[in-house]
Design goal:
With about 350 residues, the chain is mainly alpha-helical. It has two domains: about 100 residues, Orthogonal Bundle (Helix Hairpins), CATH 1.10.287; about 140 residues, DNA polymerase, domain 1 (Orthogonal Bundle). Helix content is about 55%, strand content about 10%. The chain is built from 14 helices and eight strands. The strands form four sheets. The protein has a two-stranded antiparallel ribbon. It has a two-stranded antiparallel ribbon with strand order 3-4. β1 and β2 form a beta hairpin.
Amino acid sequence: MKKQVINAKKKCSEMHSLRMDALYKLSIANHMRDEIFWFPHNMDFRGRTYPCPPYFNHLGSDVTRAVLVFAEGKPLGPKGLDWLKIHLVNLTGLKKRSSLQGRLEYADTIMEDILDSADNPLNGKKWWMNADEPWQALACCMEISNAVRSPDPTQFISHFPVHQDGSCNGLQHYAALGRDVIGAKSVNLMPCEVPQDVYSGVAQQVEEFRARDAASGLKIAQALEGFISRKVVKQTVMTVVYGVTRYGGRLQIEKRLKEIDEFPKEHVWDASHYLVRLVFSGLKEMFTGTREIQDWLTESARLISKSGHTVEWVTPLGLPIIQPYHRTRTQMLKSTIQHINLQISH
C-alpha cells in the first residue's frame, strides 16, 4: 500500500504540473489573442535560431502550435487546399508510407469525419482525438472546413502554417556531399513514387545480416529473430550523423530492447553489442561516402586543434562559425595556506 500511495502522489504531482503548464500557455495565448506579435530569436554559434519566449512559441508542444497562425494571410490558390489536406493526414501519422497523392485521396475519403470534427469537436465522432498531434489536427480540420465552405476555395485567405520536414536531414547532407545514389534515394533526395524511409532501410539491411549469421549458427543472431524493427535502430541511425560512438549507440539500442517485453532480458547486453555493430555496417554499405567524409572531418579537426587553433569556417551565408570546444586542463596552485586546483577551459 505504501508503494501505491507513493505512485498516486507522483501521478498527482505530475498531473498538477501538466495542468499548470497548460493553463500558463493558454493564459499567454489568451493575453495575445487577436494581436499581431513577433518572436525575437536567439542564434547559437552554429547559426541555429531559437525563439526567446520559452513557454509559448511555434516550436512548442502540440497545443501551442495549434493556436498559432500567421499574421499575414495568403489566398489558397489552385493547390492550397490539397496541401492543407495532406498536412492534416501528416498530423494524424496514419499514412507515413503513402505517396502525397495517396494521402490526398485518403483525406478525400474521410471528409465527413473532418467536417464533423470541425463542427462538433467535443460531442461528435471525435475523429481528431486519435491523431498523433490532436490539437493541430483539430485546428487543421477547422481551417479545411472554412475553406471548403467558402464560395471559392482558391480565393480563401488562409493564415494556417503547413509543415515541411526533411527526412533524416544530417544524412541528406552527407548523401549530397558524397554523391551517394543509394543513400540519397533512402533519404528522399532522388525522385520516387512513395516516400522512402531510411530507418526501415537500415533495419532491413540489419535483418539480412542477422539472418545470415543465424544460418551459420550464431546464438545471439538466432535469439534476435523477429525483434529487429524500425524502432530499435531509429535513434542510432539518426544520431550516427552527429557523431554518436559505438558506446552511445549500444546504450540506445539496449534501451529499446528493454522496452520489448517478449525479448529475454539476459540477452540484452550481447544483443545490443551485436546490433550496434550491424547498424554501423549497414550504414557503411548504404552511405559509402558518409563514413569517409566523417573520418576526413575528424582527422582535419584533430590536426587543426593539435596545431593550437579552434576549428572554424565561414558558411555560404557569410556567418563565421568557431567551434568553442576546449579540453579542460587542471593547474595546481600551491600556497602556504592551501592548495587550489584550477580548471582551465580556454
